[in-house]
């Protein structure tokens, strides 16, 4: 195990169930975050126990380091080309399998990897399931150049969508801006509720300076939701 803290039983249950979906010879996308980390741990256990041959693409430097440290083969997505399956966590999952991702600032690579896969499966605990997206602050990755102007453009777009005065917050850690694996910044949109996610996604994608937003619409094929008692449900 690569975690030093105790493993959350709900996340562990979802991760174990997802490992069962992996078949020998697959090209596999590895997600980012605490649940994806547990999945990678469990996957490595199975790969070594069964002598499986897998090629993995990672959604972050952190997961690539974890996976390689556990003896998994991680290659550049450019060299792999296309993936059979990606397993990743999520910050919110709605009943239509639309997601908010990016709590770990990795949603740009996560979306590239997920959309280069035949199937994307989310692993999450029950707390991530929502009726409607938006309580989790929506991450938007933006270019550092002119980011305050980009933030103003985002605020204007929100005004047009009747989401005026919602805070758009530069993500910081230890008093410093968070820098993504691609060298960009994250703006977190505190929306409370998203009335029309496709409309918001289109509006954000149209703004110069926005690299990618954390709305994953019509990308996820299955969500495996773990519960504290170790059971799982599928959405
Ligand atoms: C990273 C992500 C993660 O998948 C998401 O934040 C969920 O993380 P965790 O499993 O730690 O709750 O989108 O960008």
UniProtKB/TrEMBL annotation:
It is an enzyme of class 5 (isomerase). It comes from the Bacteria. Its EC number is 5.3.1.6. GO terms for biological process: D-ribose metabolic process; pentose-phosphate shunt, non-oxidative branch. Keywords: Isomerase. Homodimer. Pfam families: Rib_5-P_isom_A. PANTHER family: RIBOSE-5-PHOSPHATE ISOMERASE (PTHR11934). Substrate binds at residues 32-35, 88-91, 101-104, 128. GO terms for cellular component: cytosol. NCBIfam families: PRK00702.1, rpiA. InterPro entries: NagB/RpiA_transferase-like (IPR037171), Ribose5P_isomerase_typA_subgr (IPR020672), Ribose5P_isomerase_type_A (IPR004788). The active site is at residue 110. One of its GO terms (molecular function) is ribose-5-phosphate isomerase activity. CDD domains: RPI_A (cd01398). Catalyzes the reversible conversion of ribose-5-phosphate to ribulose 5-phosphate. It catalyses: aldehydo-D-ribose 5-phosphate = D-ribulose 5-phosphate. This is Ribose-5-phosphate isomerase A. The keyword Isomerase applies. Pathway: Carbohydrate degradation; pentose phosphate pathway; D-ribose 5-phosphate from D-ribulose 5-phosphate (non-oxidative stage): step 1/1. The lineage of its organism: Bacteria, Pseudomonadati, Pseudomonadota, Alphaproteobacteria, Rhodobacterales.
């Amino acid at each position: 195990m690569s975690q030093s803290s105790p493993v959350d039983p709900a996340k562990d249950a979802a991760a174990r169930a997802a490992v069962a979906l992996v078949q020998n010879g697959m090209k596999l996308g590895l997600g980012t975050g605490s649940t994806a980390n547990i999945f990678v741990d469990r996957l490595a256990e199975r790969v070594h126990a069964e002598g499986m041959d897998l090629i993995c693409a990672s959604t972050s430097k952190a997961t690539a380091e974890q996976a390689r440290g556990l003896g998994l083969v991680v290659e550049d997505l450019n060299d792999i080309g296309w993936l059979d399956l990606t397993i990743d966590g999520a910050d919110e999952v709605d009943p239509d399998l639309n997601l908010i991702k990016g709590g770990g600032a990795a949603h740009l690579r996560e979306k590239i990897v997920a959309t280069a896969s035949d199937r994307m499966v989310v692993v999450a605990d029950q707390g991530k399931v929502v009726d409607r997206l938006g309580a989790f602050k929506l991450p938007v990755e933006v270019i550092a150049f002119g980011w305050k102007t980009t933030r103003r453009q985002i605020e204007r777009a929100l005004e047009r969508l009747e989401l005026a005065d919602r805070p758009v917050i530069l993500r910081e850690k230890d008093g410093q801006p968070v820098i993504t694996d691609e060298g960009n910044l994250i703006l977190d949109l505190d929306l409370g509720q998203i009335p029309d996610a496709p409309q918001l996604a289109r509006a954000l994608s149209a703004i110069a300076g926005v690299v990618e937003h954390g709305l994953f619409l019509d990308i996820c094929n299955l969500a495996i939701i773990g519960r504290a008692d170790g059971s799982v449900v599928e959405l």
